[in-house]
What does this fold into?
Amino acid sequence: MRTVIIQPGFDSWRTRARELLGQRMHPDELLWSDAAQEPGLFDPANETVSAGPVPTVPAAFLDLARRVAVHRDARRWDLLYRVLWRLTHGGQPNLLAIASDREVRQLHQWERAVGRDIHKMHAFLRFRQVGHDASTGREQFVAWFEPEHQIVRLAAGFFVRRFAGLDWSILTPQECAHWDGVALHYTPGVSRSVAPEGDALDDLWRTYYRSIFNPARLKVRAMQAEMPRKYWKNLPEARLIAGLVAESGDRVERMLQAPARPARPAPKNSYLRSLRELNEPPPAAGDAP
Amino acid sequence: MELRQKLEILADAAKYDASCASSGAGRKDSRGSAGVGSTGGAGICHSYAPDGRCISLLKVLLTNACLYDCHYCINRRSSNVRRAQFTPAEVVQLTLDFYKRNYIEGLFLSSGIIRSADYTMELVIEVARQLREDHQFRGYIHLKTIPEASPALIERAGHYADRISINIELPTQAGLAKLAPEKNLARTQAAMGHIRSKIDERRAEARPSAEPQPPPFATGQSTQMLVGADDSNDAVILRRADTLYGNYRLRRVYYSGFSPIPEPSALLPVKPPPLVREHRLYQADWLLRFYGFKVDEIVSEAVPDLDLQLDPKLAWALRNRATFPVDINRGPRELLLRVPGLGVRNVERILTARRHTRLRLADLIRLRVPMKKVLPFILAADHSPVRLGLDADSLRARFLPPPQQVELDFSAPPPPVGDITSVHTGEL
It folds into this structure.
């Protein structure tokens, strides 16, 4: 049994995996770990690229591995190597096509969890305006988000494309991303206390949230399935939810009790008159009774 | 009137429009501009309200004053609802402010009809024009258009918007004549035909694909049909939807269960919303669009309404037992799509996987296929449904839901504050 300790990242895993594959090291002989789990045990001297023949794998596997690599489950390095082994030395080059295979299934689940985390970051992150850059005139925004997996770099490109005209920083406990209109750069994670608490627009946003809610269609479970409670603490609108749910019954009751309004006659308006004529063309001459 | 009050009134006035999609737009983004905005991927839901609906766009009316008298609508002229009107500049500023904070994907703008269709349409277009031209906004814009507006204005709306839509509201002219006397089915469909031809024209134009520039015309149109306001049965509704998909190539038909509104009309008394019916219609709509079903297979002259207790695919399977069992290792795609419990994605996975392996029940479990539902209808390498009795009369009973569906019954008292979690036992 051999212990393999890598940097917690796709590139480091890939380098070692190639090398081990070249040596035909069977997955059962390896114990994978990374510097995040075993601080101090990582030895950079091991980070050498061996010159052996590099087996080719489907591009889809590399894409899959890149996303799985940021999942927080410690077993991912081992499982990635097992599937890689089966694809190359295990005589199953089509393995990825079998979505119901136990190991492929697990990788897909991790990939989906990472994808969902990225999607929720795109959805639920909220920027707060902190000022203007005096020299460029660009507006400056800061956001706080708590991802489940190491997704900041995978998620950041979206914000560049969407908010190219703003200066922004996205702060997370793991890593922070910063955009100045020219380049994206990263700094180490910070604690929440560094992030701004709110934004002047949050109140208006809550006004919108309250007004767009239809109390006659209460479906709290459907809401929670898509917006789990763990996100609520960083969403300015979430503080309204309990109250809206509680008062919805009374609001609907008032609608049901409200007296019906009679139809009012149409006002004098040339457009309405023209519509009436379109809808009910005047009888042609000779048809009149 | 303060901006906050206007927003309160004009968002409240817009909430009965179910459309929320922000997907399907052309690929464009803000790189290289001084503005913000991007579209082209799947749409993003930035929040959810306790009605379970996604909040993706700032959905507001420009004004809720209206000349029309549609009796299902809170904004009709006979309603005593408080009226307000945004200036175009106010909507533009709200959209940009909300967008920059990542609250929304863009703007969904509709309006009550004031003065005339053209006058109203011009105001709506002006908002989109300012966003696109004065602020280089590349986010999503959905404009509601008025069928009676001049074709030139509808084209301008389509020039700025990613999606445009006209609500058909009711599936028959008779229903409209009674409940929405100013509206007209033929005019609505004619306007949809015009929009379709513009969308087709845009599609036909060869364009360099890598450019993140807005396309010259909207990429899609959608509509909304009210369910339960008139006496149209599900067959009438689904046939209308099928016509709209077929003839006008709509991206989506939204079904909106008529639900109580403040200011009920004497012509249309409020009643509890048929939320289950709305849900079944969406399921049937999916069968039409993605599963290869025809309307006549889902509803018929004899049984014009969907079964509220069973989903329409399962109901179809129970009526057509001779089609089953389908062998998951050999059956063609069209038949796999008809198996209750197999969705489009899992059918694709099965088709891909079975080229390399023989699928067993354990494989389906790992694909998270609902086993109770599929077992009577399939053959697998290690399964034949004979013992489950595909012919037995008890098969329907096997699938009937438990007697209560609390969330669908709006008249059930909502949980008290602080007790919301109790509704969700099993999720925490």
Q: What stands out?
A: The radius of gyration of chain A is 29 Å. The CA atoms of residues 22 and 82 of chain A lie 14 Å apart. The mean pLDDT of chain A is 91. The first strand of chain A starts at residue 2 and ends at 6.
